[in-house]
Structures are given as C-alpha cells and as structure tokens.
Amino acid sequence: MSKKTFIKGAAILGIAGLLVQIMGAFFRIPLGNIIGDEGMGYFQTAYPIYVFLLVFSTNGAPAAISKMTSERIALGLHSEAYRVFKLSFLLMSILGIIAAAVFFFGAKAIVIRLGNSGAYYAMIAIAPALLFVPIMAVFRGFFQGLQHMEPTAVSQLVEQAVRVVVGLTLAVVLFPKGLEMAAAGATFGTSVGPIAGVIVLIIIYSLNRKKILKNIEDNKDNNKESAGKILSSLAKIAVPITIGVSILPIMNIADVAIVITRMKQTGFTEVEANALYGQLSGMAGPIINIPMALALSVALSMVPAIAAANSVKDLEFLDTNIKLGLRTSMIIGIPCTFGIMALSEPIMLLLFPLQAESASSAAPCLFILAIGIIFLSLAQTMAGILQGLGKPSVAVVSLAAGLIVKCILTYILTGIYNVQGAAIGSTAAYAVIGIMNFIAVKRYTDTKFNLTLSVIKPLISGIIMCLCVLISYYICHLALGNSLSAVISIAIGALVYGIMLIKTKSIRPHEIELLPKGKSIAALLRKFDLI
Questions:
Q1: What does the pLDDT read at residue 7?
Q2: Please, are residues 342 and 469 in contact by the beta-carbon 8 Å criterion?
Q3: Cβ(112)–Cβ(252) under 8 Å?
Q4: Domain spans of the chain?
Q5: 190 within 8 A of 50, measured Cβ to Cβ
Q6: Among 88, 98, 99, 469, which residue has the least CB neighbours within 10 Å?
Q7: Between the CA of residue 252 and those of 49, 200, 248, 359, 519, what are the distances in Å?
Q8: What separation, in Å, do the N-terminal and C-terminal C-alpha atoms of the chain show?
Q9: What pLDDT digit, counting tens, does each position of 42-70 carry?
Q10: Are 66 and 233 in contact (CB under 8 A)?
Q11: Dihedral of the CA atoms 366, 250, 183, 119 (nearest 10)?
C-alpha cells in the first residue's frame, strides 16, 4: 500500500473518530443535566463495558482482520481472505451471544458485586450492544482489509447518531419513572446504536457482494489454512492491540469495580457513593475524551507509517515519524492539560448548568484528571509506535503496570479523599504507562529525541496560554458571567497557544503546509508576519 493510501485512510478514520467523540459529548452533557450525578452513576456502571467492546470493534479486531485480509489479497489468495471474514464472523457471533447472555441473565449478580444495585436495569439494557458490537468489528475489519475505510467511518457516525437520539429521548421519556429507569433508557440507546451500525454495514456489504464473490471465483486457490490457525492468528493480533489502545476504558472499568464499594466501606450510603461516582465518571471523565480522540487518531495513523518504515528498514523515515509522534502528542496534550486545569470549575458549570451543585463538586476531579492528559496522550502515541514496530505486547505490559498502580492507589486514596482519590489513581496510572511506553520506544529504536523542540517549547507555550486564559476569564467574569467568559477565554487560549507554537518554532512553516489547506493557512500567517 502506498503512503498516500495510508494518509487518506488515516484521515478518514481520524475525522470520523473525532466526530464520534464530539457527538458523544453532545450525548453525555445533556444526559448529565437530565439525570444528574445519581443517574449518571447508574449509567456509568454499565457504560464502560460497552466502551471497552467498542474499542475492540473499532481498533483491535478490525486491525487484526484487516491485516490478515490484506496479506492474503496481496498474495492473490482471495478465497482465503474471504475465509478469514467468514470464520471471524462465526467466532465473533458466538462471543457476542455469550457476552450478551452473561450480562442479561447475570445482571443482578453483577450489580450486587459492584455494590450498585440501582444499576440493574442499565446493565440489562447494555446486553444487546454486546451481541452486535463484535459483528460490527468483523465487517469493519474486512472492508479495511480491502482498503475501503468509508464503511467503517459511515457505520461509526450512524451508530453514534442513533445512540444520541434514542438514548436522550428514552432518558427524557423514562425520567418520570425514576433515575434508575432513565439511566436504563439512555443505556438502551447505546445498544440500539450498534444495531444501526450493523444494518449499515450489511447494506454496504450487500451492495458489494457480487464484486467480492467475483474476485474469489476469478482467483481460486487451493492453499487452504486450517480454521484453527486463522482464528489463532486473529486472537494473537487483536488482543494485544485492543488492550494497548484501551487505557481509558480499562481504567474506567477499574473504577466501576472499586470506587462505589470502597466508599461504602468508609461510611457513604449506596446512593451517596453512586452520586459521587457519577460526578467522577459521568461528568468530569467525559471531558477528557475529546483530546484523547485526537491523540488516539494520531496513534492509529502512525501505525502503518511506522510499520512500513520498519519492514523495509528505512531508518531515516522511521526516526522522523517517531520524533514527530512525540512532538504531536505534546502539542495536543499540553494545552488540554493547562486549559482544563485553569478552567476546571467554569467548564463544569458551563456544561452542566442544570446540575450546578454537582458540577462544582466534580470540578476538583476534572482538575486532577486534566493533569493526566499529557501522560495519556504520550501513552497512546507511544503505544501506536510500538504496534507499528510489531511490539504490541510491550504496550500491554505497560498498561498492566499502570493498572496495578491504579488499583492500589484508588483503593487507598478513595478511602481518604473519596472520588478525588480515584482521579489521583488514574492520573498516576497514565504517568506510569506513558513513561514506560516512551522508554520502550527509545530502547527499541535508539531514537535521539530533541526534548527542547518536542517538550520544552510546547510547555512554555502552554504556560503562557494558561496565564492568558486565567486573566481573560477573571476580567470577563466581572461583567459577562461564567458561561460567556469561559467560552471567550477558551477561544483566547487557543489563539495564544497557536501563535506561541509558531513563534517558538514548535511547528515549522513546511509542517503547516502539510496540513489540510495548509498552503492557504501558511499564506495567511505570512500575511500577518507570523511565520
């Protein structure tokens, strides 16, 4: 595959991923205002399970299936590529049925074990998603293996749009029946989304089926692999990739397992513990998802470039991409960290005006989680590099170490600082994972990083941006109130940070020209004598 094809595919998936996260924010923010922290606690007990499977269906399994499909097509083994699709479909369907059955029939036992019995209906409502998400993974992976990224992008957008509309509608309709039912309605919207996504993929597959089958007929081969070997290869590729890019979902699942139970042990009632957990996971947590979508898009787009350079031993191109990966992760992570830290409470009040008391209470959690964005951005990007180098298991080891730190600190600190202790545990875990992944990349590639360019200059830009944001907010707040002041300050911060990146040469003119519409942007910047 050419570099041009890689870039186009990465752009399609990256834009779709970012739009999905923005749509997700439009779902979670109104939902938080509708059902409050207690309802979000019930919702968030079930939702992280879906998110983990969504990562599996978006990144892990499709990456494995696409790799196996494209390899066989490159060798002219079209029927073997189609066998990968059929066997994967069979396996994923079985796994989906088992997962759906476990969470539907075992919902009561699961929520009791998690210490949050009010989440029973939400846990039942998530079951259909667990059936259809693995099936989505198969279609997405097969189309990606054919180098058609559009079906994945379209299905992601349809899935998320249906989830937002149905989830919010059911939350409002069921709200009079109580917060438990409203949370279940929102969760059921999450289940309807994958059903819509599968329908879209089936339609696209049906429209292309004749062409696919014709290629198989025209390229019959007798070199058949055993089903066991194909499925074994699928697992070996999919599992470490899924785990490697599942930092946030896995940390959220750890919170589900620990936080409520631990707070109940220290004297909180189940309702109080659930509400505080809702502030952490349903109000503060989702805000860091958008910068993480950007970081994950960078990480995923780097995998093919790194893999291509590594396979042909193009050390110069490999070195360039790795250095660019670190710089990009810092350029994304630093302003998000400083900006959210500076405006943690104003942002919470801006997004959750109908739940002002809970929003203010959740602000310290957001402040703490914001510190971890830099490390999480680093961790995701370095994990993408490790996957491209053919070392996905190294990222899994880093994640395991971070998870151990997370569980220990969360258990201890939640008993002292309630949900803020869990936020501290997450931030410490992100730091461990990010640093370990960075060290691993340096060890395997011996890359000499320019830390002044990649870290110090973006850091200086971020600090100056932070000061401007704070000053502008407090000046505007005197006359304009919180919401408008927060929006203006965020806009000023983005402008200042962009100018500082250019003035410190953290971003170079020729790199600006490589962006979409980059030459026009560069010409405009030259007009104002900024570059």
A1: 44
A2: yes
A3: no
A4: 1-237, 245-449, 452-531
A5: yes
A6: 98
A7: 9, 29, 6, 19, 41
A8: 35
A9: 888 877 777 776 666 666 777 778 777 77
A10: no
A11: -120
